[in-house]
Amino acid sequence: MGTPELACASLQALLTSPSFQVVAAVTQPDKPKGRALKLHRSPVKEFALTANLPVLQPERARNESFIEDI
Fold it and tell me: pLDDT tens digit string along 7-23?
């Protein structure tokens, strides 16, 4: 779970470790940014997509559907 660019290093380490099996990345939903308010992906989402990982973006971590997905 994470959103900032700093979390990408941890995700990379987990992906390259034979001790872990990463099945998905969890990050905040895309947010509008800039004057045009275009949706921008978090650094973790960008990294996960390049690693072909599923990305979960719940509005709230306590959301029942999110908990069921996990």
Answer: 999 999 999 999 999 99
